[in-house]
């Protein structure tokens, strides 16, 4: 597969992942699927918008750039199309790096939130009843959260999805860094000998 075709495939995969991460982050504003009366009753990490900003907005830009690489017909330097294609692939490395940063931001926030546990109402009021991920190993501790109902599985499921999807996004962007490097160094497919010699990236 040519470097441009590979980038297009990566971009097409990143977009649905970005949408799913955004939706997961939005759902976290409704603990247990319920609307809470006070904003401070929502887990702090939700307000950092890891899924909306990190794996959502910041991921859309790299995805759109990747999707457009295969059809890039930039005239390049002084009319040299191959030079333009190399520059386009080089620019994709920069956007891929932005994607890695966004995915990393979401991944770290999700990991912290999973280890910390949800904020819920306990016999001592609204607090974080779990410590160092103990609730992940011992489900009997879940009863410490009296409300909202099903807050623990809700928190666990959505942040786990964000963790996994942001990891996948980071890997895909890292692949594009390597792919973009090949495209920058080799230029078109004909130069690299990776296609049938049609000269497209």
UniProtKB/TrEMBL annotation:
The keyword Transmembrane helix applies. The chain crosses the membrane at residues 12-31, 46-69, 90-114, 151-175. It holds the Pfam family L6_membrane. Signal peptide: none annotated. GO terms for cellular component: membrane. It is found in: Membrane. It is a multi-pass membrane protein. InterPro entries: L6_membrane (IPR008661). Keywords: Membrane, Transmembrane, Transmembrane helix. Its main location: membrane. The keyword Repeat does not apply. Belongs to the L6 tetraspanin family. This is Transmembrane 4 L six family member 4.
């Amino acid at each position: 597969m040519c470097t441009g075709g590979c980038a297009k495939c990566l971009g097409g995969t990143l977009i649905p992942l970005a949408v799913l991460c955004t939706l997961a982050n939005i759902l976290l504003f409704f603990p247990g699927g319920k609307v809470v009366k006070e904003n401070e009753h929502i887990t702090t990490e939700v307000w950092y918008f890891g899924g909306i900003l990190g794996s959502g907005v910041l991921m859309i830009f790299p995805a759109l750039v990747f999707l457009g690489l295969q059809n890039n017909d930039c005239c390049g330097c002084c009319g040299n199309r191959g030079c333009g294609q190399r520059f386009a692939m080089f620019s994709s490395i920069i956007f891929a790096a932005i994607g890695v940063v966004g995915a990393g931001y979401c991944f770290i926030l999700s990991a912290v939130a999973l280890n910390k546990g949800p904020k819920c109402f306990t016999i001592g009021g609204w607090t974080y009843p779990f410590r160092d991920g103990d609730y992940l190993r011992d489900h009997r501790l879940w009863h410490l959260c009296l409300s909202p109902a099903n807050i623990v599985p809700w928190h666990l499921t959505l942040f786990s999805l964000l963790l996994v999807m942001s990891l996948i996004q980071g890997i895909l962007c890292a692949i594009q860094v390597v792919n973009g490097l090949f495209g920058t160094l080799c230029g078109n497919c004909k130069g690299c000998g990776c296609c049938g010699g049609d000269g497209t990236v």
